[in-house]
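Let us work through a complete example step by step.
Step 1: write down the sequence.
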Amino acid sequence: MKSKFDKLNLSLILSSDNNAFDFLVSNRDELFPGVPVVFCGVNNFSKTQLDTVSDFTGVAEIMSSRDTVAEILRQLPDTKKIFVINDYLKTGRAWEATLRRNLEPFSESVAIEYNENLSIEELRNKIHSMPKGSVVLLGVYYSDRDGVYITYEKLGSLLTKDSPVPVYCLLRFNLRDGVVGGKVISGYHQGVMMSEVARRVLSGEKADDIPVVKVGANIFMFDWQALKKYGIPADSLPDESVVLNEPFSFYDEYCYLVWGTCAVFAAMAILVIVLGKNLIALRRVRSELQHSELKYRSIYDNAQEGIYQTSVDGRVLAVNDAFVSIFGYDSREEVVATLDNVATKLYYNESDRDVLLNAMRTEGKLSGFELKMKRKNGEVVWITVNARKTIGQDGAVIFEGSVVDITSRKLNEQRIIQSEKMMSVGGLAAGMAHEINNPLAVIISSVQSLQRRLTRETSHNVAAAEECGVPFPAIMEYIERRNCSKLMNGMYEAGMRAATIVRGMLSFSRKSESKFVPNDLGNLMRSALGLVVNDYDFRRNYDFRKIKIIEDFDAEDLTVACDVTEIQQVFLNLLKNGAEAMGEKIYPEGEGPCFILRGYRLGDLAVMEIEDNGPGMDKELCNRIMEPFFTTKSASRGTGLGLSISYFIITDRHHGAMEVFSELGKGTRFAIKLPLYEKIDIYEI
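Step 2: predict the structure and record it as tokens.
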């Protein structure tokens, strides 16, 4: 060890407790010659221990038992007995001897009992059996009679926890778990006093000139909860006592801060009074501004028109709730975050944005501009835009204005135009029907008369032939060889088809007397399929039997009140048109023409869809397909009345709806919607 510390140049040595002190007394001169020593925590210190050494000083660890007992008797004047506890090891015996000497002056005022050599459990039982007026004083206890070793810190917990009588102590270690306290030996305070002595030595004083501190190293220390338990007022404790576990008092801890804060608030109150008139005036002005802001904010938020602000480059700056609703967004924040370029994300045609920009450059405003825009989900809506150029809060040029959703108005306009077209064709149809019906009736009647007179061997026909010198069988043979019978049948069929067209045209101008009766749409569609296969010959353009038919009808009842003949006429017309269209399409290998027929309920409506995989139509053609006299067929194959008559039958006669959806190259789908039978009364037209 000497070689280990030989090269160290020490100014001071600090030691704690008896073992370190004894080691330095014996070996300091050899290991650290001339280095002063400051010690603390030395029990049973005697000045004679320093007779053989020099430059030693420090703080002796001397118990304050007399002061502690005096404080016990002051705090608890009814105390009759003090039970002193020490172990039976060397230190414990030395402590007991010292305690007997120190407490001798109290023997006449209170009974003092010292513990026998018992086990921990026996000691605990003895403490818990003590009568009222007893007090326990803990000394040092490290091991019981059975050799069970206990640290100082645990002694209080094991012996005195939940004790029925007050427990005081002489060591800081034992101040826990209900121990009241006392004038205790504290390692912390021993260290503080040792540091003061060490500072004096390092400042130049000789250690031998500084006397060993024997008084003042201990301090009164108490536990607040134990004081409260035994009714000992905290303000009755000795001066400079330390109270542990005391509830925090903000005022006691920060009284200067509290008073300083009060002074600040007082000054602020004076300032408030001085500025009161100005504040009242300011509040009045602010109230008026808030009222004005609320008024215009209410107009802005509750307006039915969408209100907006955008930058010149097309970034949305602000919108109201109506704007959010019109374009299908969830919030104003989403609109501002999403629409950073209205030309591409809001305008259906980007050229419309150029129209607005040009108006802003030339006139600074734009009113009543109708155009198409896109909602969040891509749906197209018709919008009327009003805009003006202005200056924003940051001085930059911005556009602001309003938008109005006019989609419903546009749809109504289209319906009105369609109705006017249907009304015009109705008037034309009425005139044409009356003009055509009479000669058509003569033609059909004449063909039927020719068939009866030339193909039936009646007595009148035979007699007339013989009068002319021609046998009737010869006439019949001539008719057969010249295919006159086939020609007459063709004339009759053509006349009947013309009569059907005339009846359809008459439907535009007047109601028929047909009765509406309940019928299932699925059954009517199946009946129409049978007719289109068996009654019509479409083989010039297609073979209907080679068209694949897929039926997808709901199990639910699809009964509607309708005119069977008219609904079948609509189905036949749609099937015929779809079949002819598919006949013009060239399909890839492995594919072919196909109809998908769907029937289902939609709320209180029965829906029948007829979908084909033909060539389809573009949007412009879809918008005109139901106009009277509009056809995509050649003049010899179509009149342009089929779909318009079908539309009239569904919408006007049956109070339903007829819609068409098509995509060029992929096919067309017609949707017919009629009120369910249970939702309406059967009526006559």
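Step 3: interpret the result. The chain has a mean pLDDT of 84.
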